[in-house]
Amino acid sequence: MSWRASLAGASLSLAVAACATAPSPAEADIAAIETVLTDQATAWNAGDVRGFMAGYAQSEDLRFASGGTVTRGWQATLDRYLARYNTREKMGTLDFTDLEIELLGPDAAVIHGHWQLTRDGDTPHGLFTLIARRIDGNWQIVSDTTTSAD
User: What is the DSSP code (8-state) at residue 58?
Assistant: First the structure.
């Protein structure tokens, strides 16, 4: 076999290997969205409400619906969280499970899942539906509808 044939074979093998290991753009987006949620839970579990809020778009257009009310805007949503979870004990430990992430396009996704807080004496839990958008290259939550099973 000539050196050209060997080089062509090696190049083809490398190209096939690269394609087999590189995630698709959709897989990369889903992983990035999962990271946003993981980072939120990590911040929450460290008692860092502001770090938790980093997953939300810092915009007056942010929509947060829970408990029969709608809060609009990042700052108002932060204020709501700070008032409701003003002690580490009230925050408990947050866990997200059963995530379903559906890309609606290159810059939009819907996320469904379960949430649960584990605290001394109770374990409130429920469902959430999030709308995420890619803003300035980063996935951020622009709408959050959270319900409680309690």
Answer: -
